């Protein structure tokens, strides 16, 4: 799976706590291998028909869409209470 990163995603990812950044790196590896892996807890977003989220931890989420069949665009990363806005 090829990944693209929105500018907003890059900015937000630098602001994450170091432990969340390390866990994100592990989740990204899993995502590249199989985006449907149950360890990611991928969910389709109701309000946005083409957007999905996956867990980094119980607190942290990544929002993404598919730009192509084998390419995902990571739009946002952050705390679950903030990232869905």
Task: Report a brief summary of the structure.
The protein has 85 residues and is α+β, with helices and mostly antiparallel strands. The chain contains 3 helices and 5 strands; from the N terminus they run βααββββα. The longest helix has 16 residues, at 18-33.
What does this structure look like?
This protein is of the alpha+beta class. It has one domain: RelE-like (YaeB-like fold), CATH 3.30.2310. The protein has three helices and five strands. The protein has helices at 7-15, 18-33, 80-83, and strands at 2-5, 43-44, 51-55, 60-68, 71-79. It has a five-stranded mixed β-sheet. A hairpin with a 4-residue loop joins strand 3 and strand 4 (60-68). The chain is globular and about 30 Å long.
SSE topology string: EHHEEEEH
Examine the secondary-structure arrangement and name the CATH architecture: 2-Layer Sandwich
Number of E-type strands: 5
Q: Kindly report the spatial arrangement of strands forming the biggest sheet.
A: 1-5-4-3-2
Specify the number of helices. Answer: 3
N-C termini distance: 26 Å
| Overall number of domains | 1
Estimated share of beta-strand residues: 25-35%
Task: Summarize the main sheet.
Answer: 5 strands, mixed
Descriptive keywords:
YaeB-like fold, 34% strand, 34% helix, 3 helices, 85 residues, alpha+beta, five-stranded mixed sheet, globular
């Amino acid at each position: 799976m090829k990944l693209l990163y929105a500018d907003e995603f890059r900015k937000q990812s630098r602001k994450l706590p170091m432990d969340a950044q390390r866990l994100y790196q592990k989740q990204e590896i899993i995502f590249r291998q199989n985006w449907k892996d149950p360890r990611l807890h991928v969910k389709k977003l109701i309000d946005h028909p083409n957007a999905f989220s996956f867990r980094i931890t119980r607190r942290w989420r990544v929002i993404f869409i598919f730009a192509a069949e084998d390419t995902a665009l990571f739009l946002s990363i952050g705390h679950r209470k903030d990232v869905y806005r």
